[in-house]
Fold this sequence. Notes:
The chain has helices spanning about 5-10, 15-45, 50-55, 80-95, 100-120, 130-150, 150-165, 180-195, 230-240; strands at about 55-60, 125-130. It is mainly alpha-helical. It folds into two domains: about 15-195, Rhomboid-like (Rhomboid-like fold, Up-down Bundle); about 205-240, no CATH class. It has a two-stranded antiparallel sheet with strand order 1-2. α6 (about 130-150) runs antiparallel to α7 (about 150-165) and α6 (about 130-150) packs parallel to α8. Its main location: membrane. One of its GO terms (molecular function) is serine-type endopeptidase activity. Pfam families: Rhomboid. This is Rhomboid family intramembrane serine protease.
Amino acid sequence: xxxxxxxxxxxxxxxxxxxxxxxxxxFFVMFGLLAVVWLVQLANWADHYALSRDYAVVSGDVATLxxxxxxxxxxxxxxxxxxxxxPLFVFGFLAAYRGVLRFLGLxxxxxxxxxLVVWFFERDDVATVGASGLIFGYFGYVVVRGLxxxxxxxxxxxxxxxxxxxxxxxxxxxxxxxxxxxxHLGGLLGGLVGAWLLRDxxxxxxxxxxxxxxxxxxxxxxxxxxxxGSPRSDLYQELDDLGLL
Length: 245
């Protein structure tokens, strides 16, 4: 595939305008998701939390398997939803701003991994609901995404988030009363796997035109930025590897 075709296929680096547009979409997607979660909570509270009882995930109960997709929208109390709302929005936005479609696939993967880990390994007398599995999944995704994508900005974001919220991992291990550590662990694993499966597979400059060791990435008109063997080609390669191109 030549360079112009690669660009049309979406393999070229995103422009700042495209990144801003995706960030705007991410904001509204997360705002909408949070609004849905709170509307569901209102209906749930008005019905004395019948929705949480009816659509919770219960280990070993085949009838609750489809509820792995509904359970993240439900909570047991106002304190429960309030504690989840802030982290859900922050980590969800950071996970979504590189692409909303990728984020939707990631969300499905995390919901499934969190719910299935609960379904297989939780005690059968525990009913599990809540968005914390999604939160842990987004957290794991944000922390490692930059490493898999070889993107400097995302790597720095991951380092900051990992250092600032490392305490979250204390409720992804056994021993924390009143929380589903299995749901947290399952969500975290789903986010890490999602970072690998949804990593950026666009071509690097050295292979943009099928030539290694010289030709840099093509511009939007299909012309190469540097000729093969140009002294600047190595610089472009390094900048692109850092995620700055």
